[in-house]
Write a structure and sequence with these properties.
The relative contact order is 0.10. This protein is of the alpha+beta class. The radius of gyration is 20 Å and the shape is globular. A hairpin with a 2-residue loop joins β1 and β2. The chain is 31% helix and 20% strand.
């Protein structure tokens, strides 16, 4: 690994550790003024970018520290991989430069973006998305037919694909299909361009913005294929939204449909204010009471009950 610049390290350490842990499949819970991880209740996160372990032993000897230490401990990464991951997560990865002490800046090598190979069929992801995530087969087939999702080989993950305006795949994320059978696997495909994201394009002046692809799909089903643009950020940062608005200048209305938790609510209010100042009309709506996200709602109801009046789409 080459040395990272000071600005790169500061950027990596500015990422919200709760969001990173959540993206890795962990469940964040508040404990007094701090946060913990449901799956590892000896961990404490404070306030947004440090953590420590108050009990238990680690084979690595790491008992706390920054986001970088967290990725090394729980992501199995070395320090270079951890910084790269956090820069990508922040949307600032890609062509940033690295600099060894006493040397001139050089271009960081851009990782090639290659979609994982596809399986000969989509049977496992169909079963996972219908039986465990509560979506209808009709909805899943709609996304498969448009090459927005597919099943990978050899691990049979769900691959969520994001395309640019020309129809070229620029982003993909992977989701394991073994929820409830161990640690959830979630990861972005290496070499992603984080300006792009999983989305459904439409001829509309409105875009609805979600955190996760699975929530976008759930909302799509709930509201019977709403005739609007739909975009899944994959995080609470708005880099993909900025790109999407630039690619679709007709859009003047933005509906934020982020998670009904502290991070999602805070991000919704901040982003709505930001885009109002940029001249857009915005609105905020959260999942129904008692549900963290729209997939929570889908999973708690039979397919017929989960569908609601399409008037709620905006």
């Amino acid at each position: 690994m080459g040395m990272f610049t000071k600005s790169e390290l500061e950027m990596a350490k500015s990422v919200d550790l709760k969001a990173v842990a959540s993206a890795m499949g962990y469940t964040i819970k508040r404990v007094g003024k701090l946060y913990t991880i449901k799956e590892m209740d000896s961990i404490r996160i404070y306030p947004d970018n440090h953590w420590y372990r108050w009990s238990g032993k680690s084979s690595t000897g790491i008992t706390g520290g920054s986001q970088i230490d967290f990725m090394m401990e729980f992501g199995g990464m070395d320090i270079g991989e951890a910084v790269d991951y956090l820069l990508d997560f922040s949307g600032q990865g890609g062509n940033m430069t690295v600099q060894a002490v006493g040397s001139a800046p050089v271009e960081k090598e851009q990782k090639p973006f290659l979609l994982p190979p596809s399986s000969s069929n989509n049977l496992r992801i169909m079963r996972y998305l219908t039986e465990e995530r509560g979506l209808s087969g009709e909805t899943v087939r709609w996304f498969i037919d448009r090459k927005l999702i597919y099943e990978s080989e050899p691990y049979h993950n769900v691959i969520f694909v994001g395309y640019d305006k020309a129809g070229k795949a620029r982003f993909a994320s992977m989701r394991g299909t073994n929820d409830g059978k161990g640690k959830i696997f979630k990861c972005d495909v290496a070499g992603n361009d984080k300006r792009y994201a999983f989305h459904v394009e439409n001829d509309s002046d409105t875009v609805l913005v979600f955190e996760a692809a699975i929530d976008l799909m759930s909302y799509f089903e709930m509201y019977r294929r709403p005739q609007v643009h739909m975009l899944a950020l994959g995080m609470t940062a708005d880099n993909p939204l900025q790109q999407y608005l630039g690619d679709n200048p007709k859009i003047r209305n933005i509906g934020f449909r982020l998670d009904n938790d502290e991070a999602g609510r805070n991000a919704s209010y901040k982003l709505a204010e930001k885009y109002i100042r940029l001249g857009y009309r915005t609105d905020i709506s959260f999942p129904p009471d008692g549900c963290k996200d729209y997939n929570d709602f889908i999973r708690n109801y039979a397919h017929g009950k989960a569908r609601v009046d399409s008037k709620g789409a905006r």
